[in-house]
UniProtKB/TrEMBL annotation:
Lineage: Bacteria, Pseudomonadati, Pseudomonadota, Gammaproteobacteria, Vibrionales
Residue stretches spanning the membrane: 6-33, 54-71, 83-106, 127-146, 166-188, 200-221
One Pfam family per UniProt: DsbD_2
Domain of life of the source: Bacteria
UniProt-listed InterPro entries: UreH-like_TM_dom
Keyword Transmembrane helix: yes
Alphabetical keyword list: Membrane, Transmembrane, Transmembrane helix
All residue ranges annotated as the Urease accessory protein UreH-like transmembrane domain in the record: 7-214
Keyword Lyase: no
The protein, known as: Cytochrome biogenesis protein
Length: 225
Protein backbone atom coordinates (compact mmCIF):
# COMPACT_ATOMS: atom_id res chain seq x y z
CA UNK A 1 0.00 0.00 0.00
CA UNK A 2 1.23 3.52 -0.81
CA UNK A 3 2.92 5.23 2.13
CA UNK A 4 0.52 8.18 1.72
CA UNK A 5 -2.30 5.93 2.94
CA UNK A 6 -0.36 5.18 6.12
CA UNK A 7 0.42 8.87 6.53
CA UNK A 8 -3.26 9.76 6.15
CA UNK A 9 -4.22 7.12 8.72
CA UNK A 10 -1.59 8.51 11.10
CA UNK A 11 -2.96 12.05 10.67
CA UNK A 12 -6.42 10.85 11.66
CA UNK A 13 -5.15 8.80 14.59
CA UNK A 14 -2.70 11.37 15.93
CA UNK A 15 -5.11 14.23 15.47
CA UNK A 16 -7.55 12.51 17.83
CA UNK A 17 -7.48 15.34 20.34
CA UNK A 18 -8.55 17.77 17.64
CA UNK A 19 -11.30 15.36 16.52
CA UNK A 20 -12.68 15.27 20.04
CA UNK A 21 -12.86 19.05 20.09
CA UNK A 22 -14.38 19.47 16.62
CA UNK A 23 -16.77 16.53 16.33
CA UNK A 24 -16.92 15.03 19.82
CA UNK A 25 -20.01 16.97 20.80
CA UNK A 26 -21.80 15.79 17.67
CA UNK A 27 -20.95 12.13 18.29
CA UNK A 28 -22.14 12.47 21.87
CA UNK A 29 -25.35 14.17 20.75
CA UNK A 30 -26.20 11.15 18.62
CA UNK A 31 -26.48 8.96 21.70
CA UNK A 32 -27.64 11.57 24.21
CA UNK A 33 -30.51 12.53 21.93
CA UNK A 34 -31.92 9.02 21.94
CA UNK A 35 -34.76 7.89 24.18
CA UNK A 36 -33.39 6.25 27.32
CA UNK A 37 -34.61 2.82 26.25
CA UNK A 38 -32.49 3.06 23.08
CA UNK A 39 -29.23 3.98 24.82
CA UNK A 40 -28.06 0.35 24.72
CA UNK A 41 -28.63 0.33 20.94
CA UNK A 42 -26.19 3.16 20.21
CA UNK A 43 -23.80 1.13 18.05
CA UNK A 44 -25.94 1.08 14.88
CA UNK A 45 -26.35 4.86 15.17
CA UNK A 46 -22.62 5.41 15.61
CA UNK A 47 -21.80 2.99 12.80
CA UNK A 48 -24.06 4.70 10.25
CA UNK A 49 -22.92 8.17 11.37
CA UNK A 50 -19.27 7.28 10.87
CA UNK A 51 -19.95 5.51 7.56
CA UNK A 52 -21.62 8.69 6.33
CA UNK A 53 -18.73 10.82 7.54
CA UNK A 54 -16.18 8.59 5.78
CA UNK A 55 -18.22 8.64 2.57
CA UNK A 56 -17.98 12.44 2.53
CA UNK A 57 -14.23 12.28 3.10
CA UNK A 58 -13.84 9.79 0.25
CA UNK A 59 -15.94 11.92 -2.09
CA UNK A 60 -13.87 15.03 -1.29
CA UNK A 61 -10.64 13.07 -1.73
CA UNK A 62 -11.82 11.64 -5.04
CA UNK A 63 -12.76 15.08 -6.36
CA UNK A 64 -9.46 16.65 -5.25
CA UNK A 65 -7.29 13.73 -6.39
CA UNK A 66 -8.99 13.44 -9.77
CA UNK A 67 -9.00 17.18 -10.43
CA UNK A 68 -5.32 17.73 -9.69
CA UNK A 69 -4.19 14.63 -11.59
CA UNK A 70 -6.14 15.81 -14.64
CA UNK A 71 -4.69 19.31 -14.36
CA UNK A 72 -1.17 17.86 -14.18
CA UNK A 73 -1.81 15.69 -17.25
CA UNK A 74 -3.43 18.54 -19.17
CA UNK A 75 -0.61 20.96 -18.43
CA UNK A 76 2.01 18.40 -19.44
CA UNK A 77 4.13 19.70 -16.58
CA UNK A 78 5.77 16.58 -15.16
CA UNK A 79 6.89 18.32 -11.97
CA UNK A 80 3.41 19.60 -11.08
CA UNK A 81 2.63 16.79 -8.63
CA UNK A 82 6.10 17.12 -7.10
CA UNK A 83 5.40 20.77 -6.30
CA UNK A 84 2.06 19.73 -4.86
CA UNK A 85 3.82 17.11 -2.74
CA UNK A 86 6.08 19.85 -1.38
CA UNK A 87 2.97 21.84 -0.45
CA UNK A 88 1.51 18.72 1.20
CA UNK A 89 4.73 18.34 3.20
CA UNK A 90 4.44 21.95 4.38
CA UNK A 91 0.83 21.31 5.38
CA UNK A 92 1.97 18.25 7.34
CA UNK A 93 4.55 20.37 9.19
CA UNK A 94 1.96 23.03 9.97
CA UNK A 95 -0.43 20.34 11.15
CA UNK A 96 2.24 18.90 13.45
CA UNK A 97 2.84 22.34 14.94
CA UNK A 98 -0.93 22.72 15.38
CA UNK A 99 -1.49 19.36 17.06
CA UNK A 100 1.47 20.00 19.36
CA UNK A 101 -0.06 23.41 20.18
CA UNK A 102 3.14 25.23 19.21
CA UNK A 103 1.64 27.26 16.35
CA UNK A 104 -2.05 27.36 15.45
CA UNK A 105 -1.83 28.66 11.88
CA UNK A 106 -3.74 25.64 10.50
CA UNK A 107 -6.85 26.75 12.39
CA UNK A 108 -7.08 29.68 9.95
CA UNK A 109 -7.47 27.19 7.10
CA UNK A 110 -10.79 26.13 8.61
CA UNK A 111 -12.23 29.49 7.63
CA UNK A 112 -12.10 28.34 4.00
CA UNK A 113 -15.12 26.09 4.49
CA UNK A 114 -17.17 28.41 6.68
CA UNK A 115 -19.19 29.79 3.76
CA UNK A 116 -20.37 26.34 2.66
CA UNK A 117 -21.01 25.27 6.26
CA UNK A 118 -23.49 28.11 6.74
CA UNK A 119 -25.82 26.20 4.42
CA UNK A 120 -25.00 22.64 5.50
CA UNK A 121 -24.82 23.12 9.28
CA UNK A 122 -28.46 24.13 9.88
CA UNK A 123 -29.72 21.22 7.76
CA UNK A 124 -27.64 18.77 9.82
CA UNK A 125 -28.84 20.21 13.13
CA UNK A 126 -32.48 19.87 12.09
CA UNK A 127 -32.02 16.09 11.82
CA UNK A 128 -31.53 15.72 15.60
CA UNK A 129 -32.73 13.74 17.44
CA UNK A 130 -32.20 10.89 15.00
CA UNK A 131 -35.31 8.82 14.41
CA UNK A 132 -33.51 5.60 13.46
CA UNK A 133 -29.98 4.22 12.85
CA UNK A 134 -30.30 4.69 9.07
CA UNK A 135 -31.07 8.38 9.67
CA UNK A 136 -27.54 8.68 11.07
CA UNK A 137 -26.13 7.99 7.58
CA UNK A 138 -27.21 11.26 5.89
CA UNK A 139 -26.46 13.04 9.18
CA UNK A 140 -22.88 11.76 9.04
CA UNK A 141 -22.59 12.65 5.35
CA UNK A 142 -23.49 16.26 6.13
CA UNK A 143 -21.18 16.49 9.15
CA UNK A 144 -18.34 15.13 7.04
CA UNK A 145 -18.19 18.59 5.43
CA UNK A 146 -17.57 20.40 8.72
CA UNK A 147 -14.68 22.88 8.20
CA UNK A 148 -11.65 21.17 9.74
CA UNK A 149 -7.95 21.97 9.38
CA UNK A 150 -7.14 18.31 9.94
CA UNK A 151 -9.31 17.29 6.97
CA UNK A 152 -7.97 20.06 4.74
CA UNK A 153 -4.38 19.11 5.55
CA UNK A 154 -5.08 15.52 4.56
CA UNK A 155 -6.78 16.66 1.35
CA UNK A 156 -3.42 18.10 0.29
CA UNK A 157 -2.16 14.48 0.29
CA UNK A 158 -5.18 13.38 -1.70
CA UNK A 159 -4.29 16.08 -4.24
CA UNK A 160 -0.91 14.43 -4.95
CA UNK A 161 -2.25 10.87 -4.98
CA UNK A 162 -2.37 10.77 -8.77
CA UNK A 163 -6.00 9.76 -9.35
CA UNK A 164 -9.56 10.09 -8.07
CA UNK A 165 -9.47 6.53 -6.70
CA UNK A 166 -6.22 7.05 -4.82
CA UNK A 167 -7.48 10.38 -3.47
CA UNK A 168 -10.61 8.69 -2.15
CA UNK A 169 -8.56 5.92 -0.55
CA UNK A 170 -6.24 8.44 1.12
CA UNK A 171 -9.25 10.12 2.74
CA UNK A 172 -10.71 6.74 3.69
CA UNK A 173 -7.45 5.93 5.50
CA UNK A 174 -7.68 9.28 7.28
CA UNK A 175 -11.27 8.61 8.30
CA UNK A 176 -10.38 5.18 9.67
CA UNK A 177 -7.67 6.83 11.77
CA UNK A 178 -10.27 9.12 13.38
CA UNK A 179 -12.58 6.26 14.39
CA UNK A 180 -11.05 5.50 17.83
CA UNK A 181 -11.62 9.09 18.95
CA UNK A 182 -15.14 9.30 17.57
CA UNK A 183 -16.21 5.93 18.98
CA UNK A 184 -14.69 6.83 22.35
CA UNK A 185 -16.94 9.88 22.54
CA UNK A 186 -20.00 8.04 21.31
CA UNK A 187 -19.61 5.30 23.93
CA UNK A 188 -18.35 7.55 26.72
CA UNK A 189 -15.03 5.67 26.95
CA UNK A 190 -13.52 8.10 29.42
CA UNK A 191 -10.11 6.44 29.76
CA UNK A 192 -9.45 6.51 26.01
CA UNK A 193 -10.63 10.11 25.83
CA UNK A 194 -8.13 11.07 28.54
CA UNK A 195 -5.30 9.46 26.60
CA UNK A 196 -6.30 11.11 23.32
CA UNK A 197 -6.58 14.54 24.96
CA UNK A 198 -3.32 14.17 26.90
CA UNK A 199 -0.81 16.89 25.97
CA UNK A 200 2.12 14.47 25.98
CA UNK A 201 0.30 12.13 23.60
CA UNK A 202 -0.55 15.02 21.31
CA UNK A 203 3.01 16.33 21.27
CA UNK A 204 4.52 12.91 20.67
CA UNK A 205 2.11 12.51 17.76
CA UNK A 206 2.97 16.00 16.54
CA UNK A 207 6.69 15.19 16.49
CA UNK A 208 6.05 12.12 14.34
CA UNK A 209 4.01 14.18 11.88
CA UNK A 210 6.69 16.87 11.81
CA UNK A 211 9.35 14.26 11.07
CA UNK A 212 7.33 12.79 8.22
CA UNK A 213 6.58 16.23 6.82
CA UNK A 214 10.25 17.22 6.84
CA UNK A 215 11.26 13.90 5.25
CA UNK A 216 8.62 14.25 2.52
CA UNK A 217 9.63 17.85 1.83
CA UNK A 218 13.28 16.80 1.55
CA UNK A 219 12.41 14.08 -0.98
CA UNK A 220 10.30 16.52 -3.02
CA UNK A 221 13.07 19.12 -3.09
CA UNK A 222 15.60 16.49 -4.23
CA UNK A 223 13.29 15.54 -7.11
CA UNK A 224 13.08 19.16 -8.21
CA UNK A 225 16.84 19.70 -8.18
Amino acid sequence: MNIDFYAAFAIGLMGAGHCLGMCGGIAAAITLGMPQKQQQQRWPYLAFYNIGRLLSYMLAGGIIGGTFSQLADFSGYSSALVYLRLIAAIMMILLGLYIGQWWLAVSKVERVGQFLWRFIGPKANKMLPLSSPIAALPFGILWGWLPCGLVYSTLSWAAVSGSALSGGLVMLAFGLGTLPAMLAVGTMAQQLQLVLRNLYFRRASALLLLSYGVHTGYIAIKQLM
